[in-house]
Amino acid sequence: MIHGAIYCFLFVACRIGLFFYHPVFRVVGREHIPKDGRLLICANHSGLADPIWIIMALRMGHMPRVMAKKEAFDVPILGWFLRSIGVFGIDRDGMDISGIKTGIRCLRDEQQLLLFPEGTRVKPGRQVKAKRGAVLLAQKTDTPILPVYLTVKRRPFSKLTCVIGEPYRPTFANKRPSEEELEQATDDLMGTIYRLGENT
């Protein structure tokens, strides 16, 4: 994870850069963020800069690990930069065992991991079936999920709101949940996330 001066520099540089697109950035529910320990941060995804906005909203003092689509690492300079700040890739179209194992190691090492269960940017009014990887990671590592909502309908210079919900652990009848249970838990997670945005 990135700590200290480098994190502070990136934090300030990103906020200055993004100020010209969304000068007003409102954060609700920051008191729900656990002080320490492993954490799975799950958010809806509608904009390219979503990971940056969420990291700024969390204000953890260090950068959490981020799970991103593996295609981003094919861009030479971008791929190098992402790896250097602790981002790792995942294959969105199949069961990426390597990516899942990396996520499990992060959480078992008491790190915080940010991912987007929808797996892709979702435009306003559109719906996609979220991936089950998030609840699977939470179940395998006994990690609380922190649901986060970011404003979906955005215009240049409009206010952007981030709502942070209360952390919770998905529950299952057995240690090895069925595919149906994982799918239901994933639907429940996305429902929780989008309900956070109902009053924004």
From TrEMBL:
Span of domain Phospholipid/glycerol acyltransferase: 39-153
MF-aspect GO terms: 1-acylglycerol-3-phosphate O-acyltransferase activity
Keywords, comma-separated and alphabetical: Acyltransferase, Membrane, Transferase, Transmembrane, Transmembrane helix
InterPro entries: Plipid/glycerol_acylTrfase
Annotated protein name in UniProt: 1-acyl-sn-glycerol-3-phosphate acyltransferase
Regions that span the bilayer: 7-25
CDD domains: LPLAT_AGPAT-like
SUPFAM superfamilies with a match to the protein in the record: Glycerol-3-phosphate (1)-acyltransferase (SSF69593)
Keyword set includes Amino-acid biosynthesis: no
Organism whose genome encodes this protein: Candidatus Avoscillospira avicola
One Gene Ontology term from the biological process aspect of the record: phosphatidic acid biosynthetic process
